[in-house]
Design goal:
Radius of gyration: 26 Å
Number of helices: 11
CATH class of the largest domain: Mainly Alpha
Helix content: 55-70%
Low-confidence stretches: 1-39
Mean pLDDT: 86
Strand order of the largest sheet: 5-4-7-6
Number of domains: 2
CATH topology of the largest domain: Triger factor/SurA peptide-binding fold
Strand content: 5-15%
Shape: extended
Structural class: alpha+beta
């Protein structure tokens, strides 16, 4: 479920960016700048907007903005250019309003997430941390605690349910795929590519131990050359993240690989197996395919292109939905960008 939530957040962000200019003019027309001061210790006043008479808090806006600033090294708010502060406020208020509208729409449609679903997501997140204290510290860095996390998850899961029900019906016809491919050849051009699988054994600082690692790598090389299933060997022996995929690194260009690895694999012939040592350790490499510079065949990228076109349609539907929700809603902006 978290994958769907991540996708929904991405779509909301994209739609918000597309709609910002429209929202700004809408907000300006509806703005009723409040004279209230910021809450004690806060950046903004208690209520920065109302959506259908329900408040959007200044604290929520502050958290949205602080998360943005944290990604930049947490610069002081007062040190930012006035224009940039205005952009952050506009984007933050827009995001909060859009999220609120989508949540209300989702609840009205009956897509509300259950307490059990929320708790399951909390437990799934908790597995990434060694202790409750570590998780709490991570949440604090995002200006969250357990309770606010659950609230956000409930809202995100609810919106995800609703949007998933809307986007599941999206289809892409074969002729749409063919037309897009024919009209955008530059998108599918690629340099020389190789596809390889590898088994990585980490080298050791001790010469004696490193010799043992090398001997083990040579044994795996011999087994691969003899015809043992390379994918099985990788799953059972490799310490690289590709082990679960049988060591397959997919199609890659030379400039994205470690130089030692790249020089070797691009000089190999299809089906060849070699052993090399890089700065990471010992690699048993099997070259599975080569593609010369050119344009990817439609059949090779059809699945990815279909996904791309579905996402484009989903973004367009979400943008239209948000615009309609804004049109039907009562929105009051109680903060000016100058603040």
């Amino acid at each position: 479920m978290m994958r769907e939530v991540i996708i929904v957040k991405y779509l909301i962000r994209v739609a918000s960016a597309v709609l910002l200019s429209l929202c700004f003019s809408h907000m300006a027309g509806a703005a009723q700048t409040a004279a209230t001061a910021a809450s004690p210790g806060g950046m903004f006043q208690d209520v920065v907007a109302r959506v259908n008479d329900k408040p959007v808090s200044g604290r929520d806006l502050e958290m949205v903005i602080r998360r943005e600033l944290a990604a930049m090294g947490s610069p002081e708010w007062r040190d930012l250019r006035v224009e940039y502060r205005s952009e952050l406020i506009y984007a933050g208020v827009t995001s909060l309003i859009n999220s609120r509208l989508l949540y209300e729409k989702a609840v009205a449609s009956g897509a509300k997430a259950t307490a059990e679903e929320v708790e399951a997501e909390v437990q799934s997140l908790a597995k990434n941390y060694s202790s409750d204290a570590e998780m709490n510290a991570a949440l604090a860095r995002q200006f969250l605690d357990r309770n606010s996390l659950k609230q956000r998850l409930e809202q995100d899961l609810t919106v995800a349910k609703h949007l998933n029900s809307l986007t599941q019906a999206i289809t892409v016809a074969p002729e749409e795929i063919s037309k897009y491919y024919a009209e955008n050849p530059e998108m599918f051009a690629h340099p020389d590519l190789v596809r390889a699988s590898h088994i990585l054994l980490l080298s050791e600082t001790s010469p004696e131990l490193d010799a043992q690692v090398k001997e083990r790598a040579e044994g795996l090389l011999a087994r691969a050359k003899k015809g043992d299933d390379f994918a099985v060997l990788a799953k059972e022996n490799s310490v690289d993240s590709t082990a679960s995929q049988g060591g397959d690194i997919g199609y890659v260009a030379k400039d994205v690989l470690d130089p030692d690895f790249a020089d070797t694999v691009f000089s190999m012939t299809k089906g060849e197996v070699r052993l090399i040592k890089s700065r990471h350790g010992y690699h048993v490499i099997k070259l599975t395919d080569k593609k010369l510079e050119g344009v990817a065949a439609l059949d090779d990228i059809r699945e990815d292109l279909t996904t791309h076109l579905k996402q484009e349609k989903a973004q367009a539907e979400l943008a239209n939905l948000i615009m309609q929700l804004q049109k039907d809603a009562k929105i009051e902006i109680l903060i000016s960008p100058g603040e």
